[in-house]
Amino acid sequence: MRTKDFAATNKISLANEYHRYNLKSVIFMISKKIAKEKRIILKHADDPNYSNKIGCYLRKGGYKMLEKSLKLKPEEIGEEVLKSGVRGRGGAGFPAGMKWKFLDRKSGKPIYLICNADESEPGTFKDRQIIYKDPHQLIEGMMITAYAIQAKLAFIYIRAEFFEGAKILERAISEAKEKGFCGENILDSDYSCDLVIHRGAGAYICGEETGLIESLEGKRPNPRIKPPYFPAVLGLYQCPTIVNNVETLCNVRHIMKMGGDAYAKLGKPNNTGTRIWCVSGQVVKPGYYEFECGALTLGEMIYDICGGLHPGRSLQAVIPGGSSAKVLRADERFTGKMKDGTEFDWGIEDIPLDFDGPMAAGSMSGSGGIIVMDDTVDMVQAMANINAFYAHESCGQCTPCREGVLWMRKITKRICSGHAREEDADLLLSVANQIEGRTICAFGEAAAWPTQSFVSKFRDDFIAKAKHPSDEKSQLQLI
Ligand SMILES: Cc1cc2nc3c(=O)[nH]c(=O)nc-3n(C[C@H](O)[C@H](O)[C@H](O)COP(=O)(O)O)c2cc1C
Ligand code: SF4
Predict the structure, then answer these.
(1) Is residue 214 in contact with ligand 1, taking CB distance under 6 Å?
(2) What would the mean pLDDT of 55-77 be, rounded to a whole number?
(3) Residue 364 banded pLDDT, cuts 50, 70, 90
(4) Ligand located closest to 88 CA
(5) What is the pLDDT, as a whole number, of residue 399?
(6) What domains, with CATH codes, occur in the chain?
């Protein structure tokens, strides 16, 4: 158990870490040029003079980009978004402009737009901030997108637990309708599009786009198999549908303001624009931060932006993209070649915070949820909690996922409670390996990756845990 290791090496560790902590701060003060936050989406979010009412949004130039967009041809907006290179902020990082291009426009069926505001990935808390603090930005982004894809009906599928968010959006939509920004003949044009809020069904799987669509249709959120059910072809009511994340849709407004080419200059090639990172865990200043993609490294985020770890602590591990991303060990080295051929040799602190950096390090930036774990974290217990979550959330359609996640939970629970068998670490790996790649939706990978990475990277902890089980209190955390 890490806490024990910590106690055993307490004095040396404390001395080293105080030194390291102070050294980091000194480096920060005298030599380093730390990237500043570049707030585009969250520009007004924490301004005490700004509220989520339409008046504030209009005073800051709100809905001007909708006005501008309605004067363009829909395909011209699509071209700007394509040029911007903006990648989806919901998890997979698929380029939005390309997704829009896949829309089946020939079928003659109605086209729908859905905003995915389910935000169910543990460690992620950015979309709710946008909704609570600047809902009109999302509505404007959605109306521009709806016009670009020629949708006549758009939905915001919001997580069931966001009661307040749903209320805020309801009010914001009625304000927008009153001013003619959505509904019939938007801004006196001949384009009409209604916008409807749909409260989620309270399950993680409702965030998976095809599960979300099933739920929106009033059914159990069982994800659909792809192919053939790619939403852009066979989505809501079997009609072409675009599903985009809240942050992605907000970006559309800024792309129209800057122009696709100028937007593409923010960040780096293939990693354009800004990203909102949600930092949680054992850092001094957890929270949400918006930076240009790749403007800073994971180490700079942890030590310079989030104030570092608490005094006396050392970094043990980081999950860089929400609970389904593979965990990274603090003492790992990451070597290889990027897609453009550049070679890298990074420690954990050198990993660039963009889409490609965490991916090159064998994990992913996912939905932007960075979970920092210091040396007090019991890694077996942490994985047990993650496994309990996935076991609870599987929709149960596919046998490897339904049975596998339950077995992973049972095995980790038995390790934590002192009933481990010698072969349990290998058994866990084997179960996880048999889930990955054998399921209808990517939940299978989301559940398998934590187990694969925790067990292979913290194997000694699993062996040690078998000898020194968790105390009764922490066992109770397991569902
Ligand atoms: C299990 C699972 C849960 C997901 N949960 C969310 C979610 O809560 N919010 C979200 O935007 N995307 C979520 N996604 C990704 C969506 O399926 C989809 O890719 C995304 O909404 C597309 O938007 P984007 O292209 O703008 O990222 C999830 C995916 C999986 C496999
Ligand atoms: S992978 Fe899991 S969550 Fe996804 S469809 Fe299969 S059983 Fe359901």
Answers:
(1) no
(2) 98
(3) very high
(4) 1
(5) 97
(6) 2-33+268-374 (3.10.20.600), 54-265 (3.40.50.11540), 379-475 (1.20.1440.230)
